Amino acid sequence: MADDMNTQDDQALADEWAAALEETGDAGQADIDALLAADTGAHASNRLQMEEFGSVPKSNEQVTLDGPNLDVILDIPVSISMEVGSTDINIRNLLQLNQGSVIELDRLAGEPLDVLVNGTLIAHGEVVVVNEKFGIRLTDVISPSERIKKLR
Predict the structure, then answer these.
(1) Among residues 65, 56, 59, 72, which one has the least CA distance to residue 144?
(2) What is the rounded distance in angstroms from the CA atom of residue 45 to the CA atom of residue 127?
(3) How far is CA 23 from the centre of its chain?
(4) Which domains, from first to last, does the chain contain?
(5) Torsion of CA 79, 85, 87, 92, to 10 degrees
(6) Using CA atoms, how far apart are residues 121 and 81, in angstroms rounded to an integer?
(7) How sure is the predictor about 138, in pLDDT bands with cuts at 50, 70 and 90?
(8) Is the per-residue pLDDT at 40 higher than 90?
(9) Where on the phi/psi map is residue 25: left (φ > 0), alpha (ψ -120 to 50), or beta?
(10) How many C-beta neighbours within 10 Å does residue 141 have?
(11) Which residues, in sequence order, are bridge partners of residue 76?
(12) Position 85 confidence tier, pLDDT thresholds 50, 70, 90
């Protein structure tokens, strides 16, 4: 029964592709190139030159968070994490870890933690306890303009 449904779905998909190919007619690559060339010539004056992604703005204006474009991204969820420290170990030592093992980190005791948003450092802070849960008190926050510059 399931095989019949799959073959019917496959046949319907094949029919759709066949109909779409018939609609295109006998247009070849030469026809497509001619249409693109005609489109480029007709609209070249109306198009702005595209800037390369990650390029520095042409003006020397300060990067700000003001403007209407920011409203589009304000509700996008991001992952925030706090990094106590890190270290590199080889696979042999990784496989030997068990309950009670201690791993030495590259950070000193009492040193501020890194606050990362989607892997990008945005602040430093210290651990606090809030309602029996861990929290972090921000002690040093990177300015918004510096954070935006780091994204480029």
Answers:
(1) 65
(2) 58
(3) 38
(4) 78-100+108-151 (2.30.330.10)
(5) -70
(6) 10
(7) very high
(8) no
(9) left
(10) 13
(11) none
(12) confident
Least confident range of 26-40, 47-61, 120-134: 47-61
152, HSE (Cβ side, Cα atoms, 13 Å)? 12
Phi, psi (degrees; rounded to nearest 5) at 59: -85, 165
Q: Average pLDDT in the 116-136 region?
A: 88
Place of tokens 């170990």: 89
Q: One-letter amino acid identity for 12?
A: A
pTM: 0.46
User: What pLDDT score was predicted for residue 62?
Assistant: 58
C-beta neighbour count of 31 within 10 angstroms = 11
Q: Cβ–Cβ contacts within 10 Å for residue 113, how many?
A: 20
